[in-house]
Amino acid sequence: VGLLLELARIFSKKGSPVTLRFLAFAGTESGLEGSITYFLAHDIEPKNIVAALEFNRVGAFEKILIGHDIDAANLEELMLDKEELEKERQKGQFVIRANWVRTINLGDVNIIDRINNLLKDPCGLAESPDMLLEKAKSVAKSLDIKAETSYYPCVGDYYSFLYKKIPTIIICGEGNMLAGTPYDTIENIKESSLSKAAALAYQLILELESEKK
Questions:
Q1: Where does the sequence pass through the membrane (predicted)?
Q2: How far is residue 139's CA from residue 149's CA, in Å, rounded to a whole number?
Q3: Alpha-carbon distances of 19 from 15, 123, 146, 209, rounded to whole Å
Q4: Which of 12, 28, 66, 114 is the most buried (most CB within 10 A)?
Q5: Which of the four pLDDT bands, split at 50, 70 and 90, describes residue 98?
């Protein structure tokens, strides 16, 4: 959240040729409740969005994982074979369809239509666009930040954005074994990690802006 607030402060003074939205969601690990609620409350056209960038676990890290790249290895250093890759590309973000089914109002008179529409939905993008993955890697390299692409690098709301066919990447800090433990506290945040993540976010936004001028 601190990273988002600092970026918002900088761009509020600097200005931008595109509309920037800084979002922080709760309920990520309890069914992506925050991001799903956001989409239910807003009428969003994917064609009007340049990119969605998620930053996760950037308070302390040894390297950056950029996802979601189905051609890359996962956290266990395993890769999908050709047949598995094809299935993944066809499924999209099928893994979170059940999260959307939970939003159906059982008292809705059009409940059958809603269920049928969900079942017909191809579940969005199977992976992050190559352009975004490569641009993020390039910016990280220019800033001397160790980074590589990854298959589902960490849990995040990027699932929801890809499901909605929005070009999205997640930038996830790797190497911090404290994440999700009782020791994951503000005292263990590293200023150097936050500074690197902020620089990466800032430069990446500038480059994406320049393409839309």
A1: none
A2: 13
A3: 9, 26, 29, 10
A4: 66
A5: confident
CA distance 202 to 6: 10
Only one residue has tokens 């266990």, namely 76
Mean pLDDT to the nearest integer, 44-49: 91
What type of residue sits at position 112?
A: I
HEC profile of the chain = CHHHHHHHHHHHHHCCCCCCCCCCCCCHHHCCHHHHHHHHHCCCCHHHCCCEEEEECCCCCCEEEEECCCCCCCCCCCCCCHHHHHHHHHHCCHHHHHHHHCCCCCCCCCHHHHHHHHHHCCCCCCCCCHHHHHHHHHHHHHCCCCEEECCCCCCCCHHHHHHCCCCEEEEEEECCCCCCCCCCCHHHCCHHHHHHHHHHHHHHHHHHHHCCC
Q: Which of 8-17, 84-93, 104-113, 195-204 has the lowest mean pLDDT?
A: 104-113
Q: What is the CATH number of domain 2-93+124-210?
A: 3.40.630.10
Full-model pTM: 0.89
Amino acid at site 83: E
